[in-house]
């Protein structure tokens, strides 16, 4: 499964959803699919990202394959109807019943069509897991440190953002990772204290090393050296 292909990301979620019993509580089903606690704000946030994902796939298909507009219309209308009619406190059937076999087949076909435009693969799970663990350790070390309070606040927020992007990789792909890295490193252009902490502290070096690991994995997965290069250039600029 290529999680850098938005069509396959959406297809994977819907196919996994078809395996969940129709009488399960809808909110519990989403919690299972999205790895988010039922009562957490993350659940609704990730639901929103799935809805955005539908729009992303639709746009990419219509732009790359205009003749597929009618086929695209069928599955997108069904998925949108599913979101409109679902009852989070009701049964899963209020959502998944709208996702018919034709919708799955059309989406699978169009995901494959998008794949012909890219040779991307998924970032290795082991790298994502290692990066997440390293970032969690860095966050704990940061919170226990005597770094300036304002710097600590921004750094901890941005590290949590990158951890969230790793957790949501199956929803946002490498775009989510890159955006979070850009925010984490890019803040140094506007905050000299933040820049100094990234550049001159052991915690900062650990952050850079972890980001480098992710950059290498993203480069391998996407086959686009400019992704890794862009991250390394951003890091280099932030340390001048």
Automatic annotation (TrEMBL):
<protein>
    <submittedName>
        <fullName>Uncharacterized protein</fullName>
    </submittedName>
</protein>
């Amino acid at each position: 499964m290529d999680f850098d292909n938005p069509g396959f990301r959406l297809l994977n979620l819907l196919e996994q959803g078809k395996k969940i019993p129709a009488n399960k509580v809808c909110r519990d089903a989403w919690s299972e699919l999205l790895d988010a606690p039922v009562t957490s704000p993350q659940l609704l946030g990730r639901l929103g990202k799935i809805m955005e994902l539908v729009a992303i796939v639709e746009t990419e298909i219509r732009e790359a394959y205009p003749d597929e507009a009618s086929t695209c219309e069928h599955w997108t209308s069904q998925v949108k109807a599913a979101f409109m009619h679902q009852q989070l406190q009701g049964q899963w059937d209020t959502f998944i019943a709208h996702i018919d076999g034709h919708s799955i087949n059309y989406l699978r076909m169009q995901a494959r069509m998008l794949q012909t435009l890219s040779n991307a693969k998924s970032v290795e799970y082991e790298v994502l897991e290692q990066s997440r663990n390293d970032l969690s350790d860095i966050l704990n070390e940061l919170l226990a440190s005597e770094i300036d309070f304002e710097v600590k606040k921004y750094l901890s927020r941005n590290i949590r953002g990158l951890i969230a992007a790793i957790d949501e990789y199956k929803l946002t792909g490498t775009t989510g990772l890159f955006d979070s890295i850009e925010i984490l490193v890019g803040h140094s252009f506007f905050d000299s204290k933040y820049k100094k902490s990234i550049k001159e502290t052991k915690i900062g070096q650990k952050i850079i090393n972890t980001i480098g690991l992710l950059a290498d994995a993203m480069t391998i997965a996407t086959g686009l050296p400019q992704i890794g290069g862009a991250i390394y250039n951003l890091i280099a600029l932030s340390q001048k």
